[in-house]
Design goal:
Layout: E1 7-13, E2 15-16, E3 28-29, H1 32-50, E4 60-67, H2 75-88, E5 91-101, H3 108-117, E6 121-127, H4 131-137, H5 144-156, E7 161-167, H6 174-185, E8 191-196, H7 204-210, E9 218-221, E10 224-227
Parallel strand pairs: 1-4, 2-3, 4-5, 5-6, 6-7, 7-8
Antiparallel strand pairs: 9-10
Helix pairs in contact: 1-2, 2-3, 3-5
The structure holds iron/sulfur cluster.
Length: 232
């Protein structure tokens, strides 16, 4: 028997402007011709899935654009994709429609267009509120861009805002982490997700640590600090 249960849809957008030094994900550096080909293939894929009998008429309880950095795509690509998805499957007034974004590379006009087209949740990769952390992990942008991005998102109409954070960063002390948390909680996001840094072999960060250009991460075990070793 074919199910009529509501389903979630995840769209993976593998483009970023540049690679963060800790990142080992598959990704493509955002270039117009590659993004145009990706958009065309993705629209075709959505159409093909729309013809699948087992997906026919199933309501979408969530639609999630993750990456990569989905907002590397031109905003009109994202709004077109969402329009096509909604024309293919039913949604309801409670369908959560999320887009991930980099706080340092999104403009108010883009946020407004995304909100108007139906995106009702935005998730920013804030990562830290210490500029020295950004330098250590090769993350572009400035930490103050996160506050601006949240402010502009609210002005554009978003009320559901998530922040992703990373802990266990190179040379990050417990106090640095507490400061970051307090700074971000003060911005009153709807939700905060925290992830431990994983040092992946063959990343620029692992090389920088091996060459002693960057300090290794410090983790707290019970009551004392000690460096992580042999994890990369
Ligand atoms: S923004 Fe995310 S996916 Fe893109 S390079 Fe940085 S960590 Fe990797």
């Amino acid at each position: 028997m074919i199910s009529s249960e509501a389903i979630g849809l995840y769209i993976h957008v593998p483009f970023c402007r540049r690679r963060c030094h800790f990142c080992a994900f598959y990704l493509e550096i955002a270039q117009p011709d590659r993004m145009a080909r990706f958009q065309s293939a993705l629209l075709q894929e959505i159409t093909l899935h729309g013809r699948q009998e087992f997906l026919n008429g199933r309501c979408l309880h969530s639609i999630y654009f993750g990456g990569g950095t989905p907002t590397s795509l031109p905003t009109e690509y994202l709004t077109t994709l969402l329009n096509v998805i909604r024309a293919t499957w039913p949604t309801s007034s409670t369908t959560e429609i999320t887009v991930e974004a980099h706080p340092s590379s999104i403009a108010f006009e883009d946020l407004t267009d995304l909100a108007k087209s139906g995106f009702n949740r935005i998730s920013f990769g804030a990562e830290s509120m210490k500029d020295q952390d950004f330098a250590a992990i090769g993350r572009f942008g400035r930490v103050r861009d996160t506050a601006t991005a949240i402010h502009e998102s609210r002005r554009a109409g978003f009320t559901n805002i998530n922040l992703d954070l990373m802990y266990g960063l190179p040379a990050q002390s417990l106090q640095d982490w507490v400061d970051t948390l307090e700074s971000l909680v003060a911005l009153e996001p709807t939700h905060i997700s925290c992830y431990a840094l994983t040092l992946e072999a063959d990343t620029r960060l692992a090389q920088d640590i091996a060459r002693k250009v960057v300090s290794p991460p410090m983790m707290r075990y019970r009551s004392r600090w000690r460096p992580l070793q042999n994890t990369y």
